[in-house]
Each structure stands twice: as C-alpha cells, then as structure tokens.
Design goal:
By secondary structure, this protein is mainly β. Helices cover 0% and strands 32% of the residues.
Length: 107
C-alpha cells in the first residue's frame, strides 16, 4: 500500500516582559504547526471489507476477492476492483494550525 508522506512542521512561541513597578507582565503567543502542513496520516486500506468475490464462472477472475472487471464501478481490462468506495482515500490528516495566547503576571 505504500507509506504516507513525510510529516514536517514548526512551532513558534513569542513572549516579552513588561515591568510595571514590582509587577512583571509577560504576554505570550504560541503558534503550533506554523506552516499548516496537513499531510495524510492514514489511508483506508480495506480492499474487500464487504467480502465480495467474483462469482461469474466464465470470468478469468472467478473466485478472486473484489468486484469483477467491467461491472459496477470497476473498469474492464484490469484486475478485480475493491468493493470499498473509499479504498486508498485519505482517512485522516495531521492537525491544522493552532494559536494560543496567554498572559503571565509575576509579582
């Protein structure tokens, strides 16, 4: 089935101290997954979840798992197709960008 693409990204945090007498106020910003690089992390790899088999005795593919070529959504001329319409489609992706803001007060 192959592998999913390489995941890469970066996080960023910014903070600055402001002094107001004996109090130190620090506003902070955190940005997670800065580049918003939402790569696929899982594909639907269930080829034959409904248990379909080629049942036409005249077919070259008789008895093999899947849908007979030339029937349904399976193009003619190839091997049997998956009976799962979501076969090899992306099932999940990495998380999107997230922003977090905070204020720290020390006295």
């Amino acid at each position: 089935m192959g592998r999913t693409p390489t995941e890469w990204d970066a996080d960023l945090s910014l903070a600055y101290n402001f002094k107001a007498g004996p109090v130190v106020i620090t506003p902070m910003i955190f940005i997670f997954r800065l580049f918003n690089n939402q790569q696929p992390t899982r594909y639907d790899t269930a080829f034959n979840p409904y248990g379909s088999f080629v049942t036409n005795p005249a077919s070259f593919w008789y008895g093999q798992p899947g849908v007979e070529p030339g029937t349904g959504n399976c193009p003619a001329g190839g091997a049997p197709c998956s009976d799962n319409p979501n076969y090899m489609k992306v099932a999940s992706r990495s998380l999107p960008r997230q922003l977090r803001a905070a204020i720290k007060i020390a006295f």
